[in-house]
């Protein structure tokens, strides 16, 4: 059923479609479909490893979406209502494929579908869930800020499709600057926020109160409005639903949130959806007006002048682009310089760390040597990983601050240079054609968070070699301790190498995205004007009467779209 309030949005959208250029067609069709189905897109959003997928599984009451301790979700996954359980994979080439539930990991995870080599656009999970039946699409998104840069891009590119958002924070750490930056971007798209503090099973009651108050104060300051944060344990919720343990389910906080969600869907869903659609229509119509204003100015320029100006414009653009193309080699050279500093710091840091690690391991070994063989192995495996992380993590965090600070200086410099490039293009177009080109911003902060975990495979393999277990107890312990000692230097070097590789990968990926953004800005600006000018030249070659007719038609369209905007805004 179409949404109808004081105005008929479907009628207005259809009229806008008739008034708009062809290149705005897809956006209008998408909005019309949303009005027709009255379906609200509710996206689960947040930084990497905040438990978004686990939260959705807990809401459903069944672990149907894959989770793990490393970055998992890499493809948009949409849950929609259907009386029967069914999963459909939609590919970029528009082909579709029905898969089994146990096959979903092969398509939506970084492990099963690295770098989206299978060309998946999105995955639709059809499921008989009451929330979905009430007219919502529940959307699982890749986490922002993981080492897999494309995951962040997938989520950012999808933001324009959402109407409301469930924003996940976690109880094990306060809200970060990166999360606040992400929230600023979401604010431009979502018309209703639900804030979740996940993983409350990590904290005591006092700790929970402290982190809730801290996050609430920060978010209210950012949003300039009062908010409510729902403390939830997805772990307890899944366990409570699967075992029909109502006490555990209540303790998880999920029941309270479900009550709020049900109330929202019953009383406020349509208002939120209408506000979101209105906003999307206004953005679309403003773009159409801008396009027509440029076209109008172009067709009023004498043809000879127009062709001459286009030639001058292309010559000027060539010079500007040539200067802009210096960015990539310079940024790569700067990254090399940053990594040389990292190498120097790593070299200094690891001096004596092998002796420190051996001392800690030997001390712990003395505490557990009276245990059974299996217990010794399990205890030492866990202790080794923990102490390895404790040795490295403080250094890594400080080094990361230095790397980010150095990198942000680079991209800030090139952001300013690109802004100057854009302004040069805009100035050139203004001087030649007396037109103003729409301007887009560059996001120039380094927000990729750590995806690194520390490894000790050679040691863990040593501990679990079967032949060790057949040795007498004293020989087993002696052999194990000697092998631990002999491998420590290798483990220190290996994890230094992993830290280095992690920084290098993240810098290269972030710089690739950043350079791509710079190129996108410049190309958008150039192509927008060239397209309008070339169309104007074709129209300008018509007779004076035909040109005036085109101009009158453009004026009528602009005025009518402005009238529609007033109606939408009312």
UniProtKB/TrEMBL annotation:
Q: Which UniProt keywords apply?
A: Coiled coil
For this protein, the record's SUPFAM superfamilies field holds:
P-loop containing nucleoside triphosphate hydrolases
Q: Is Coiled coil one of the keywords UniProt gives this record?
A: yes
Q: Which Pfam families match?
A: Dynamin_N
What superkingdom does the record give? Archaea
- State a single Gene Ontology molecular function: GTP binding
List, for all copies, the residue spans of the domain called Dynamin-type G.
36-274
Coiled coil ranges (UniProt) are 540-567
Q: Please report the name of this protein according to its UniProt entry.
A: GTPase Era
Please name the source species: Candidatus Methanofastidiosum methylothiophilum
